[in-house]
Design goal:
By secondary structure, this protein is of the alpha/beta class. Helix 4 links the parallel strand 4 and strand 5. It has nine helices and eleven strands. Helix content is 35%, strand content 26%. Strands 3-2-1-4-5-10-6-7-11 form a nine-stranded mixed beta sheet, sandwiched between helices. Strands 8-9 form a two-stranded antiparallel sheet.
């Protein structure tokens, strides 16, 4: 892993449990993007915008980090994909030009929430859809008693719902949580019904699943409801593990080590023969 990674922004060379969470959110968004004009706020490295561009009419990725924008333009050169510098409270697109606006893990990084929603309403078409995720302050910060230094203003579910309901006529709430390499997503009223069993040969137990992330899909028009789903992280974990092995084997240290130890390896084979 590169030394300049801060631990907050996901990039494609990063290996961790949260990869499944991030990819799952874009899978969820893919239900709404076919042949639509998409805006991805806080697009970062650009992998999510690139995934959506496979079926969308066009995708615009916006990020406050101009270095990230410059890199994304080089890494993902698609004719229907563009990247622009900008912030959540000053979105660089025209009024009522966007069909679906996506904002994953963005709102907690600033405190201009009302300004952001004012901009979201400005750029969305009258029947446009907002898909937004946010860590639940209760389960993300309060219960584990941990502070994320990159977060400026986290929201409890009630605050998140109030913010959305004051700007949109219709909205649905979903929960998301990482479970053993995979990501689980479900409507709010179904999420807690899932029981998680664990244990060993001596004893077993179960617990209800608490959400870590809140995801809201909102619009001024009725929006189709999504069913519960799982992003299977096993395949991804295997691929990432293979990538790590390849990275180690191609490193100068590993290569030098093989050169140094090779004569001893050959001598050992000769002596055994």
């Amino acid at each position: 892993m590169r030394k300049n990674w801060t631990g907050e922004r996901l990039e494609t060379y990063v290996h961790g449990e949260f990869v499944s969470e991030h990819l799952h959110r874009y899978c969820i968004a893919s239900n709404f993007v076919k042949d639509k004009i998409i805006l991805d706020i806080a697009s970062g490295e650009g992998y999510g915008s690139n995934l959506l561009a496979s079926s969308a009419k066009s995708v615009i990725g916006v990020d406050i980090d101009e270095v990230a924008i410059a890199k994304a333009k080089i890494k993902y050169p698609k004719s229907n994909l563009s990247f622009l510098p900008g912030s959540a409270d000053k979105i660089p697109v025209d009024d009522h030009s966007i069909d679906v606006l996506i904002s994953f893990e963005t709102i907690e990084h600033h405190d201009k929430h009302l300004e952001m929603f004012s901009e979201i309403k400005r750029v969305l078409k009258t029947d446009g859809i907002l898909i937004m995720s946010s860590p639940d302050k209760k389960y993300y910060t309060d219960i584990p008693n941990k502070i994320n230094p990159f977060h400026v203003k986290e929201l409890y579910l009630e605050e998140f719902e109030q913010l959305v309901s004051s700007h949109f006529k219709h909205y649905d709430v979903y929960f998301q949580k990482y479970i053993d390499r995979s990501s689980f997503f479900a409507p709010a009223d179904e999420f807690n019904s899932l029981l998680i069993y664990s244990g060993d040969f001596n004893s077993v137990s179960f617990q209800k699943l608490d959400p870590l992330y809140n995801i809201i899909i909102a619009s001024d028009s009725p929006v189709k409801k999504l069913e519960k789903s799982i992003f299977d992280g096993a395949v991804l974990s295997e691929k990432l593990s293979n990538d790590i092995v390849k990275s180690i084997q191609s490193s100068p240290t590993f290569i030098i080590g093989r050169v140094v130890t090779y004569p001893f390896y050959k001598l050992k084979k000769i002596l055994k023969g």
